[in-house]
TrEMBL record, chain A:
Cellular component, GO, one term: mitochondrial inner membrane
InterPro entries: NADH_DH_su5_C (IPR010934), NADHpl_OxRdtase_5_subgr (IPR018393), ND/Mrp_TM (IPR001750), NU5C-like (IPR003945), Proton_antipo_N (IPR001516)
Originating organism: Lutra lutra (European river otter)
Transmembrane segments: 6-30, 42-61, 87-108, 120-137, 143-163, 175-194, 248-266, 278-297, 365-389, 409-435, 456-475, 487-507, 589-607
GO molecular function terms noted in the UniProt entry: NADH dehydrogenase (ubiquinone) activity; NADH dehydrogenase activity
UniProt name for this protein: NADH-ubiquinone oxidoreductase chain 5
Keyword Translocase part of the UniProt annotation: yes
One Pfam family here: NADH5_C
UniProtKB/TrEMBL annotation, chain B:
Record-level GO BP terms: ATP synthesis coupled electron transport; electron transport coupled proton transport
Function as written in the Swiss-Prot or TrEMBL entry: Core subunit of the mitochondrial membrane respiratory chain NADH dehydrogenase (Complex I) which catalyzes electron transfer from NADH through the respiratory chain, using ubiquinone as an electron acceptor. Essential for the catalytic activity and assembly of complex I.
Catalytic activity: a ubiquinone + NADH + 5 H(+)(in) = a ubiquinol + NAD(+) + 4 H(+)(out)
GO molecular function: NADH dehydrogenase (ubiquinone) activity; NADH dehydrogenase activity; ubiquinone binding
Transmembrane segments: 21-42, 54-73, 94-110, 116-133, 145-167, 194-216, 223-244, 256-277, 284-303, 309-330, 351-369, 389-413, 434-455
Principal subcellular localisation of the protein: mitochondrion
Gene: ND4
Similarity comment: family membership: Belongs to the complex I subunit 4 family.
Subcellular location, record wording: Mitochondrion membrane
Organism of this sequence: Lutra lutra (European river otter)
Entry keyword Transmembrane: yes
Protein name: NADH-ubiquinone oxidoreductase chain 4
InterPro entries, sorted: NADH4_N, NADH_Q_OxRdtase_chainM/4, NADH_UbQ_OxRdtase, ND/Mrp_TM
Record keywords, A-Z: Electron transport, Membrane, Mitochondrion, NAD, Respiratory chain, Translocase, Transmembrane, Transmembrane helix, Transport, Ubiquinone
Length: 609, 459
């Protein structure tokens, strides 16, 4: 029994520890210069402590549920604060804490000149707490608290430089797309309440309801919004307006995988619903291909990495679509390491080049920034799934499983093309930023020797190399792995990746000095992000705002409703009072009638007798 | 009940006998103490309501609203200090007297046992409100606003008087505690439909229902700050409260009659939220957002399920505090910029960082961030409407999205962006203002910890 107590108490210590710096904001510590250091250290301690329950979980493999503080009971439904400590949360909590720890250290370097750096750290920590709530929640309401919390924190962090219009627009855009997803979440909550009368995850999974299409659609919509799947994807590249640590933490490794995480949480419902699986698969495949295409021609280094995040998220959704939630989860964990590192490397480059984000204006950084570029190469290779780096352990497995399953061949083909493109755009970053001659301003002083920067990237670098091996070696296999397969299926992932590398390298070399006579349509499609923002972000808001101005506000409220009730009432009152009243101002007529009556009465009086 | 009514009455002599530098402090402190008394009624017995006297009673539906009313008076007094600083002493005292009278009437309205007494008090609240709007409003349009306010409400509620008299004649009583056991089912006939309409229209206008809402933006915009606060926070809730009380009498006719009104509310909440997107006037935006939120309450009351009643009650209290807070914030802007136009107050986060925090929290509660009681209310309403008809989720979803949009649009326009030159020499925010915002937010946060106490009679 003692083992269990250590398990729950240490995870609670981990969670409670994170709230201490938030509570400290009312003390003088918050005004102190050391606050960022304090927050970072707290996070690192939380990570260390969270390793204890993770190890215990790996050892014993038992799910636990902590249920405390009864919040409210409505009718027959009980809501209480409860934490679900199962495979997913136990593995993800240390991963998220580790990544956050590194990113916080990185932010101490990246944001050191910001006057509100303490507030920035508080926001990062608040975000981390809401993410922890999301991951460990055991009922849908608590999950929703975390779900909305990460959305709002992302709004605040994207809009960190609030003086800039772009940052504000991007923040609003993120909230809008997330909110559309939230409607799906609320739909699912409403359905579960109406039909199953519970929000507790165990109880939901226990009930065998025949037709789960409606709540699953809701959950898929929610995941689409949060994880930037096709249709609701444009907010993710726009979110790059935020500071780079924010992009590294929220928009690559933690918040954006919340949608995938939600689908993984609810996979017991999904695994028997073939229709939803097919929809999920197709959605993921479209996303991964489309965003990979968009990434190919971007010039902003952060945008390329953002689109690659989107593409990887699509891959995770594909994995859920082929009914492999555990693989998708593995990919979430491995992806966190190298994607966060890629963003940090790009942050280091951007900072060194005096806020230059355009890859065309970089070049030759291999000599100037040896450490950063080494990490960038390792990260890119891990992302493309080079054998025995972190990405390999999840990505290769996903492609293999998709190859050997009875899946939609069309979706599989799209995923493979996207995999190949991953290599292509990674090459493009490396080619333009690292190789060739420097194309940046010579007066720039490049410096990457700050220990805060080096240590944080180094930590994630080790993660990018070893984490995949460690995680996949230590966890028990949850689904039966495919033991044998033809060698062409086994090597397919690797082949397409290498193909992508070679093709991109050749293309880059041949076309480096050539100019387009006219931009090709394919290039335009990719560079304009599939014309998606230009149409959707222009036409729909315009129609909507025009409708609200013209019909809702002016036509209905200011004209018709005003006319039908108050104006018409007063109008009829005035009219009828005019008709009824005897006074019309016709003096001549009055006098004439007066005279006539007088004359008539005199006359009648005269002839009376 | 006298425990609350008598002290509230004694606020009037306190006002008139206070020294000129003490009138605000005395009244605020005293009314705050009164609001603490009302917290006692939170301790409701599980099955029965507290019959305090033949005339007054409180149950778990009226207690939250009673608390809200008493809580709001000190806040109104705190908020109006700057607005009245140029007035003479007598006028200040008169103004406070008006607010106190309004509070007195509202307390009695929410606790009245007899429906007819409820009706009389309901009408009586119009008078102090009308005086506050038309005497202390800022522009000439206040007269027109007062006219709209008075006539919409009066025309809506006069049929209710006739209906109540008829009901008294037929049932023999209008005691709220008795009629829930005594009410006869209303068969479906033309005259009964008219009766239903007569009973509901008064409250629909007060809520207000979309289409009958024109008085609300006008009154809100033109009223002085305390008027806007009490209108948004309490007077609108009279409508919801009345509807929930009177629907007992109107079953089962409500099942048929509710359809057009539910359609109107569903349609209207989207319409009014989209109007919010195009508002340039800060107060008008908040007023329209009230209409949109109240449409949810109308939906919930008309669905008449336990969950929807719980949602409606929670949403009324939550919206009361939130909209009042938003009006206070808008007013603190107005006192500095001297204009309600949003575009003239940009980038205020730079100058007033603490105020920006209040703005942020207010916007977040307005868009129903979990786990605030706003979300509890909205979620329950969405759920009950979903189980009533699945399609409504589409309209509800659109409304949820637009609500988030305009709340954050308001936040971004006023707080974010670059500072304009003409507001660089504005006053810093006063402790009075900051504590005013905190006193709005504190109950919101505390109630989120235990929403059970505001979920109404059948949670």
């Amino acid at each position: 029994m003692k083992v269990i107590n250590l398990f729950t108490s240490s995870i609670l210590v981990t969670l409670l520890m994170l709230t201490i710096p938030i509570m400290m904001t009312s003390t003088t510590l918050y005004t102190n210069k050391l606050y960022p250091q304090y927050v970072k250290t707290t996070t690192s301690y939380a990570f260390m402590i969270s390793l204890i329950p993770m190890m215990m979980f790996l050892y014993s493999g038992q799910d636990t549920m902590i249920s405390n503080w009864h919040w409210i009971t409505i009718q027959t439904m009980k809501l209480s604060l409860s934490f679900k400590l199962d495979y997913f949360s136990m593995i993800f909590v240390p991963v998220a804490l580790f990544v956050t720890w590194s990113i916080m250290e990185f932010s101490m370097w990246y944001m050191h000149s910001d006057p509100y750096i303490n507030r920035f750290f508080k926001y990062l920590l608040l975000f981390l707490i809401t993410m922890m709530i999301l991951v460990t929640a055991n009922n849908m309401f608590q999950l929703f608290i975390g779900w909305e919390g990460v959305g709002i924190m992302s709004f605040l962090l994207i809009g960190w430089w609030y003086g800039r219009t772009d940052a504000n627009t991007a923040a609003l855009q993120a909230i809008l797309y997330n909110r559309i997803g939230d409607v799906g979440f609320i739909l699912a909550m409403a359905w579960f309440l109406a039909n199953l009368n519970t929000w507790d995850l165990q109880q939901i999974f226990m009930t065998n309801h025949k037709n789960l299409s409606i709540p699953l659609t809701g959950l898929l919509l929610a995941a689409t919004g949060k994880s930037a799947q096709f249709g609701l994807h444009p907010w993710l590249p726009s979110a790059m307006e935020g500071p780079t640590p924010v992009s590294a933490l929220l928009h690559s490794s933690t918040m954006v995988v919340a949608g995938v995480f939600l689908l993984i949480r609810f996979h017991p419902l999904m695994e028997h619903n073939k229709t939803m699986q097919t929809i999920t698969l197709c959605l993921g495949a479209i996303t991964t291909l489309f965003t990979a295409i968009c990434a190919l021609t971007q010039n902003d280094i952060k945008k390329i990495i953002a689109f690659s995040t989107s593409s990887q998220l699509g891959l995770m959704i594909v994995t859920i679509g082929i009914n492999q939630p555990y693989l998708a989860f593995l990919h979430i964990c491995t992806h966190a390491f190298f994607k966060a590192m890629l963003f940090m490397c790009s942050g280091s480059i951007i900072h060194s080049l005096n806020d230059e984000q355009d890859v065309r204006k970089m070049g030759g950084l291999f000599k100037a920034l040896p450490f950063t570029t080494t990490s960038l190469i390792v990260g890119s290779l891990a992302l493309t799934g080079m054998p025995f780096l972190t990405g390999f352990y999840s990505k290769d497995l996903i492609i293999e499983t998709a190859n050997t399953s009875y899946t939609n061949a069309w979706a599989l083909l799209m995923t493979l093309v996207a995999t190949s493109m991953t290599a292509a755009y990674s090459t493009r970053i490396l080619f333009f930023a690292l190789l060739g001659q420097p194309r940046f301003n010579p007066t720039i002083t490049i410096n990457e020797s700050n220990p805060l920067l080096i240590n944080s990237i180094k930590r994630l670098l080790f993660g990018s190399i070893f984490a995949g091996f460690l995680i996949s070696y230590n966890i028990t296999p949850t689904t039966t792995p495919q033991v044998t397969m033809p060698h062409y299926l086994k090597t397919m992932a690797l082949t397409v990746t290498v193909l992508g590398f070679i093709l991109a390298l050749e293309l880059n070399l041949t076309t480096q000095n050539l100019k387009f006579k006219y931009p090709s349509n394919l290039f335009k499609f990719s560079n304009m992000l599939g014309y998606f923002p230009t149409t959707i972000h222009r036409l729909m808001p315009k129609a909507n705002l025009l409708m609200s101005q013209k019909s809702a506000s002016t036509l209905l409220d200011m004209i018709w409703l005003e006319k039908i009730l108050p104006k018409s009432v007063s109008h009829f009152q005035v009219k009828s009072s005019i008709i009824i009243t005897s006074q019309k101002g016709l003096i001549k007529l009055y006098f004439l009638s007066f005279m006539l009556t007088l004359a008539l009465s005199l006359l009648m009086l005269n002839f009376h007798e | 009940m006298l425990k609350i009514i008598m002290p509230t009455m004694m606020l009037i002599p306190l006002t008139w006998l206070s020294k000129h530098n003490m009138i605000w402090i005395n009244t605020t402190a005293y009314s705050m103490l009164i609001s603490l008394i009302s917290l006692m009624y939170l301790n409701q017995l599980p099955d029965n309501n507290l019959n305090l006297s033949p005339l007054f009673f409180v149950d778990s539906l009226s207690t939250p609203l009673l608390m809200l009313t008493t809580w709001l008076l000190p806040l109104m007094l705190m908020a109006s200090q700057h607005h009245l600083s140029k007035e003479t002493l007598t006028r200040k005292k008169l103004y406070i007297t008006m607010l106190v009278t309004l509070q007195l009437l509202l307390i009695m309205t929410f606790t009245a046992t007899e429906l007819i007494m409820f009706y009389i008090l309901f009408e009586a609240t119009l008078m102090p409100t009308l005086i506050i709007i038309t005497r202390w409003g800022n522009q000439t349009e206040r007269l027109n606003a007062g006219l709209y306010f008075l006539f919409y409400t009066l025309v809506g509620s006069l049929p209710l008087l006739i209906a109540l008299l008829w009901l008294q004649n037929n049932l023999g009583t209008l005691n709220l505690l008795v009629i829930q056991y005594w009410a006869q089912p209303l068969p479906n006939s033309w005259s009964n439909m008219l009766l239903w309409l007569a009973c509901m229209m008064a409250f629909m206008v007060k809520m207000p229902l979309y289409g009958l809402h024109l008085w609300l933006p006008k009154a809100h915009v033109e009223a002085p700050i305390a008027g806007s606060m009490v209108l948004a926070a309490v007077l609108l809730k009279l409508g919801g409260y009345g509807m929930m009380r009177i629907t007992v009498l109107l079953n089962p006719l409500t099942n048929h009659m509710a359809y057009p009104f539910m359609m109107l509310s569903l349609w209207g909440m989207i319409m009014t939220s989209s109007i919010c997107l195009r508002q340039t006037d800060l107060k008008s935006l908040i007023a329209y957002s009230s209409v949109s939120h109240m449409a949810l309450v109308i939906m919930a009351v008309l669905i008449q399920s336990p969950w929807s009643y719980a949602g409606a009650t929670a949403l009324m209290v939550a919206h009361g505090l939130t909209s009042s807070l938003l009006f206070c914030l808008a007013n603190s802007n107005y006192e500095r910029i001297h204009s309600r136009t949003m575009i003239l107050a940009r980038g205020l986060q730079m100058l007033l960082p603490l105020m920006a925090t209040w703005w942020l929290l207010a916007s977040l509660t307005n868009l129903a961030l979990p786990p605030t009681i706003n979300l509890v209310g909205e979620l329950f309403v969405v759920m009950s409407s979903f189980s009533w008809s699945n399609i409504t989720i589409i309209l509800m979803g659109v409304n949820i999205t637009i609500t988030a949009l305009y709340s954050l649009y308001m936040l971004i326009t006023t707080q974010r962006g670059k500072l304009t030159h003409h507001i660089k020499n504005i006053k810093p925010s006063f402790t009075r203002e900051n504590s005013l915002m905190v006193l709005h937010l504190l109950p919101l946060l505390l109630l989120s910890l235990n929403p059970k106490i505001i979920l109404g009679p059948i949670y």
